[in-house]
Amino acid sequence: MATTKNIHASGRIFKSDALEALTRTHIAIPLAMYWTAGAVSLWYSTARLGIGWGVAILLFLGGVLLFTLIEYLMHRFLYHIPGNTPWRERFRYVVHGVHHDHPRDKSRLAQPPITSILLAVVLYGLFTWTMGDHGTAFCGGVLFGYSSYLLVHYATHMFKPPKNFLGVLWKNHNLHHYVNDDGAFGVSSPLWDYVFGTMPPDPKRKAAAQKNLL
C-alpha cells in the first residue's frame, strides 16, 4: 500500500552530499531540454534529412505513443520491483521509493539530467541504427513524450486537479500513490493500464457498489 507520511518532507538517498545533489533537479531543466530536443529532431528530419512532413509527424507521434508504453513498463516492472532482497529493496527506494515517501519533494519529480541524457543518447543511437534517418523524428517523439510526462507528473503532485477532462490524470495518479500502488502505473496516459488490466477501481465507485449490496 502506498504511504502518505512525510509528504512535504525531503528524503535522503546518499550520505555523500555530492551524490545526493545528483539525485535532484529543477523541473524546468529537463522540460526545456527535451521539449527542445523533440522539436529540433522533428525540424531536422524535414529540413536536413529530406523526410516529408506527413511522414515525420507520423513518426514523431509514434515515438510519443511508444514513450507512454515505456513509461508504463518501467513504472510497473522496474520502479516497483519486488523488494524481496536487501539489494532490491535499496534499488527500489533509490529509483522510486523515496518519491513515494516524499511525493511533494519537487526536486525529485524528474530524473536528474545526467541519467536522462545518457538514456536519451542510448535511445537515439538505437532508433537511428534500426530505423535510419527516420529514427531521428521517432526519437524526437519519444523525448517530447518524456518531457510531457514530466509536466503531467509535476502538475499532479504540485497543483490542484483542473475541473475538466484532464482531471482524470490527477485521479489516476492519486489512486497509485494514496490507495493502491499495485496499479495505475500510467502517468501521462491511462491507456496501458486499461490494456493490461492494471487500472484499480475507483474507491468511491467501489464503496458505492458495496453499499448498494447491503
Average pLDDT taken over every residue: 88
Kindly provide the radius of gyration, computed on alpha-carbon positions and rounded to a whole number of angstroms.
Answer: 19 Å
- Profile the largest sheet: none
* Low-pLDDT residue intervals, each spanning 5 or more residues: 1-8
Portion of residues in beta strands equals under 5%
- Spell the H/E element sequence: HHHHHHHHH
Task: Please provide a written account of the structure.
The chain is mainly α and 214 residues long. The chain has one domain (17-213). The protein is built from nine helices and no strands. It has helices spanning 17-21, 28-47, 53-78, 86-101, 113-131, 134-158, 167-178, 191-196, 203-213. Helix 3 packs across helix 6 (134-158). It is globular and about 50 Å long. Residues 1-8 have low confidence and may be disordered.
